[in-house]
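pinned: reference chain
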Amino acid sequence: MKISKIIFFLIIVILSFDVQSQELSKNEKKVIDIIDKNNDDAIDLLEKIVNINSGTLNSSGVKKVGDILASEFESIGFKANWISMPEEVNRAGHLFCEINTGNVKGKKLLLIGHLDTVFEEDSPFQEFKREGNTVYGPGVDDMKGGNIIIYAALKSLYEAGLLKNTQIIVAFSGDEESVGDPVSISRRDLIEASKRSDIALGFEGSSGLNYATVARRSSGSWVLKTSGVGAHSSGIFTEKVGAGAIFEMSRILSSFYNELQEKNLTFNPSMVVGGTSLSFEEKQSKGFAYGKSNIVPQETIVQGDIRCLSNEQIEATVNKMKEIVSSNNLPQTKASISFDLKYPSMKPTPGNYAVLSVLDGVSKDLNQGVVAAYDPGKRGAGDISFVADNLDCLDGLGTMGSGSHTTNENMDLTYFKDLTKRAALLIYRLINTKS
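pinned: its structure tokens
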């Protein structure tokens, strides 16, 4: 498709949302006042759920956080449903809350959060702490704070009587930080919910008041194995012994580096084990190797990750990596590579940009400034990517903080109300935009 046609199509899609900048309506001003009134209660609720450990593998903790949020959502007219996972998935399950008031006239929304954190029960980082306008604690930014923004935004619309003739599904997964296998089961309910919706909004941490996420890269892993002939090191490079497993591994990694670099693609070899003999525990990311300087190495294993912006880029990269591994092998060596591509990508579609334009209009009307698309190369993978092929998506609508996945995780309360107001008015305008 020519560039001019793409631009024309994008303009048509954006115009279909009818998002001209406007003064806040009487209803929107009412929502803003309610958010101001309820803000302290929202922070108290955040503290309550942060102080409950919900590391991905702590199933009872994840469920406890889900139970608290289920009760809160039921109090504002939503029907809460806990979806347990089969034993083989080894994950707690998910909380889905839905409101459908009949005769739906606007966009049907799917709002996405997650209950789990990376901090398991043995982590030293367990408690909520406040210092001025900064709060610290496991999940304050990733993403219990985002969950509370979803709830506080919807509560304000409920109290203002503005959730009539709407369908909104709120999906809180219990294993976003370490997705359960197989994903065909662990993400089945999220994908099914997307098929009944028009737009998905993700509340992972914000990249600032002036950015939102229209695209996210995929996330997957790969394991490279090479083998060679074990022999005395004096025989290396001879016809009978060849190059050894480590040189073959080096050839492949160097070829990856030299031949695969392109925009929005990364591939990180994170661990290497090699020698005369080795053991490797893939799920634990641990390995042990034995070898001596006078022995040609027989085995190597490399574990790494891969991230792409589109399914086409994933396919092309995987094929190229397989080609490098299987061709031009060094003498007397063999190599193989396997992939586990868990998280798909979320491409930057015209529909995603159209939803961004609605948010941009809301932000301007709130005097919060322009909102632009964030660089997808600076974001990790997320649950919203599992539904990106089914509907328009926008992510990065959660809290503003830093230190995610570290014991210094924090969130800035200065912008908490602003982001809640922005979310509430975005939801309000979308549910009043004709499908």
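why pinned: The radius of gyration is 25 Å. The domain at 14-216+346-431 is CATH 3.40.630.10 (Aminopeptidase).
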